[in-house]
Specification:
Layout: E1 2-6, H1 7-17, E2 32-38, E3 41-47, E4 51-58, E5 60-61, E6 65-70, H2 71-80, E7 86-95, E8 101-109, E9 112-117, E10 119-120, E11 134-140, H3 141-149, E12 166-172, E13 175-181, E14 185-191, E15 200-205, H4 206-216, E16 223-228, E17 232-236, E18 241-245, E19 264-269, H5 270-280, E20 290-296, E21 299-305, E22 311-316, E23 318-320, E24 325-330, H6 331-340, E25 345-350, E26 357-361, E27 369-373
Antiparallel strand pairs: 1-5, 1-7, 2-3, 2-6, 3-4, 4-18, 6-10, 7-8, 8-9, 11-16, 12-13, 12-15, 13-14, 14-27, 16-17, 17-18, 19-23, 19-25, 20-21, 20-24, 21-22, 25-26, 26-27
Helix pairs in contact: 1-2, 3-4, 5-6
Length: 378
Amino acid sequence: MKITTNQSSLLHCLDKVSGVTQGTVINPIFANVLLQAAGSSLSMTAIDQEMQIMSSCNVETDAEFGITVPAKKLQDIIRKLEKGMEVSLVFEEEKNDGGEKQLLMQLTAGRGKYKLQTLSAENFPLMGKSTDIKPLLNVQAKTLLESLRQVHYASAQQSHRTNLNGVFLESSIDGLRFVATDGHRLAMKVLTPEKMADDAQLILPRKSVNELIRNLSAEGENEIKIEAGNRVVRFCGDTFELTSNIIMETFPDYRSVIPRNNDKIALVERRSFLASLQRVSVLAEERGATVIVSLSPEGMKLECVNKENESAVEETDAKYENDAIKLCFNINFLLDILSAVEEDVFKMRLLEESSSVLIEPAGDGEPSFQYVVMPVRM
C-alpha cells in the first residue's frame, strides 16, 4: 500500500485536523489520525470525546485502505520538510523484536526515511452517521466566522454549569441567533439569512467552537452547510467537515437577562474607547482587575488603580445627556466586547450604577448584536 503526494498538500490537511487529536492512557488511538485512501483522494480524520473533523487532499495511491498513524509525529515531520517536495507513504508488515508482525508506515522524502507505528482503522471510534440529522441552513463561511468570533469569548471555560460551556445556536423564522454567557456577561449575534432556518436549538461545546473558528478562516466566501440532529451537529465546508456532539442541557433563558428599561443612552466612538481602555489596562495587572467608567454630559472618563496605588486616567468622547453616572467593570470584559463590536459608534444603555449595561448598534432598527455586562460593586 503506497500513497504519493507532496509536502504542502499533506501539511494543509494535517493542520486542518490535528488540533483535535488528544491521546489518553485509556485510548491512545485518540492521538492518531485516520488515513483513508480511495482513488485519487486521501481523507484524514481526527476525533476526541466531543468532536470529529475530516479534511482531504489529492494523492496517487495503488489501493483503497484505511490505517491510523500518530498525528503529531507525522505533522512535525511533514512541517520540517522542504516546502512542496514529493512525499511517499508506504505501509508494510515487519516483525518486531518478539517476532510478531506489525504494520509500519515508512515516509520517504528526498534522502530522508522515517518509520512510524500504526494502529488498525477498525479500532478508530468514528462518529457514526446519525439517522436523524437533517439540513438546517447554509451560511457563508465568512459570516459564520464573524458571528462566532463576536460571541464565543463570553462562554464559560470550565463551569460546573455545563450549559454555559459553549455557544447556543437558535434558529427560527426570525433567523439564526448565536448566544454565549458565563453568568457575568452575555453576547448575542443575530443573522437573518435569505432562506430562514427550521426551528432548532443546540449548544455547541466551546472546544468545537474554537476548532470551527480555526478552520472557517480558510473557507472565505464558500458556503457552509449546517446539519443538526438530536445529539450532533455537522458543519460541512469545501476544505473540512466538523461533526460535534451537542451539550445535552437546556440553555438559560437569555431573553430575560437582556435589560428592557435602560433609558439612559450614551453614544460611544468604539476606537477611541478601545484605545483608552488598552492604555489604562497597562496598570491592571491582576486577574479580574477593574476600571471605573464615569459618564456625564461632558464626556467619558476611565480610571484604573492597581494594588501598588498606581493610577491611570483617560478621557474619551461620548455623547451623554443624562445625570452623571459612575460604574465599575471587569476591564477584560469591556476589552472583549469592544474587540468584537464592528460598528464605529455604538449605544451603551444604562439604568443605575448597580444594573447591567446593554451595548448594541447605534441605529434605531432591530439590533444585529447585543452585549450585556454586569458592573462590579465598587
